[in-house]
């Protein structure tokens, strides 16, 4: 939960690097993440060998009062999925999406939280893959049984009380668009939280910004020193793009999974409005 820089394997992989790993025959498990599967869309084409994964049913748990929109999955649920996708101890799991990049970031976070040793986010998703000369196919991959045993809790999380305290003792980032943070259209933010919309991690090309640019962005918010860092958003998805960007810099940040959808479910919790932390 601390923001101390450490040497870590990058959680991000480029399309070119992915193509090289596949060409070398590495054990790569590809997951195309969609928020919700829609049979009416038909097969749009996927990276060769990719499994299509629905975020809300396979990488999130059932909702309950106070849980927020996208609760964490149970260990048994995630274990069954990981085995079904053929994930082994030495597998490199690469997640990507053709939707909002935060969808893939949430998959990266959830699988890493579940103890999958090597999970990478494909920078630029399908567009970057095709730009690098990669093909798309319509065939689903053959089923295989993986041997990885998951261990949930492998990344730090916050509950509502911890998020509120961190907003005062460290840095709590709000990854929603600025209008949601200020309460322009209703709502507001957790008192003490700083605005850092998740879209700010991306360049105009849809790729993550350079480490230099990201480091400067977060340093302006007081991130990168010794203090603890946490992130929330609307429903625990957008925040993971901030966490991914920070992980790329070697900074660990905790996720408040319930995020605003859980915080605002209790009318007794305080709400700040405007463009100041409050």
Automatic annotation (TrEMBL):
* Tagged with keyword Repeat: yes
**Any keyword Repeat?**
yes
Query: Which EC number(s) does the record attach to this protein?
Result: 2.8.1.1
Q: Please give the name of this protein.
A: thiosulfate sulfurtransferase
Q: Which Pfam families match?
A: Rhodanese
What is this enzyme's class at the first EC digit? Answer: transferase
Domain (Rhodanese): residue spans on this chain: 24-138, 166-272
Taxonomic placement:
Bacteria, Bacillati, Actinomycetota, Actinomycetes, Streptosporangiales
